[in-house]
Structures are given as C-alpha cells and as structure tokens.
Design a protein that fits this description.
single chain, mainly alpha
Length: about 140
C-alpha cells in the first residue's frame, strides 16, 4: 500500500496547507519532518480529523499515514476521518494526479473496511464507491 504512494512528491513546507492560520500552521509543522509511514502516533492522534486542511498535494502524500492507522483500527476516528474525506470532492486534485494504482489501493481499503462496517459506515462507503466508480 505504501509503495503505491511512493511516487507522490513530498510537498515543500509552505505547500502542506493551502493557507496560513494557527491550526494549519500547527499541522504543517507537525507533519513536515515525517514521511507518511513514520508520522508519530502522537502527531497523527492530534491531527486525525485534519485531512481537509491539507493541500491537494499533501493529502496525496500523507494519505498513507491515515490509511495505515485506519487499517490497524477499522472502527476508529481514523476510519471516520478517511470516509469523510473520501466522501467529499475537497482537495483531491494534486498537480501529479492520483495513479490508477493509488485509486485501486483506495478501492481495496474500502472493501476491507466494508467487510466489518456498521450501517452508517456502509452507507458512506456506498456513496464513496458511487462517486469514485470510474476511478476505483
């Protein structure tokens, strides 16, 4: 899974979030020193709901951090945060587009989560699958 996202360019410090504010600056500074597979639990725990604050490029680059945590704990805030992000059109268009392999990883992730989903999660996954049908 991580391998599918390795080609995503690492964003520069000033590209991690699209604007400056206290919340975005804190997220930017917390993520910048880390690669997606090595974001410390404490950093990700503090920012688990902050995917919408990332730029398109940063979301693509750091998405594996959220995917790994969600896979480790399918009934967690990480899963809810990911499903919320995937269920929106908010910042999914990086300069280097998602590859077919990256979309397939997201489709496989949804299948894994769906295997143990409650009704609300299942509804969200259904909406996501419909929205991304031509990609995943």
């Amino acid at each position: 899974m991580i391998a599918a996202f390795r080609q995503a360019p690492r964003p520069a410090l000033d590209e991690i979030t699209p604007h400056a504010c206290d919340e975005c600056d804190e997220l930017r500074d917390a993520l910048h020193p880390h690669e997606p597979a090595s974001v410390p639990d404490a950093v990700l725990d503090r920012h688990r709901w902050d995917l919408p604050l990332l730029s398109d490029e940063s979301k693509q680059y750091y998405l594996p951090a959220w995917l790994l945590r969600s896979i480790d704990a399918p009934r967690s805030d990480y899963t809810e945060a990911l499903l919320f992000a995937l269920d929106s059109d908010h910042r999914w268009s990086p300069k280097t587009p998602y590859t077919a392999r990256q979309w397939r990883v997201l489709g496989s992730y949804l299948a894994y989560i769906e295997s143990d989903a409650d009704e609300a999660m299942g509804d969200a996954i259904g909406r996501i699958r419909a929205r991304l049908a031509d990609r995943i």
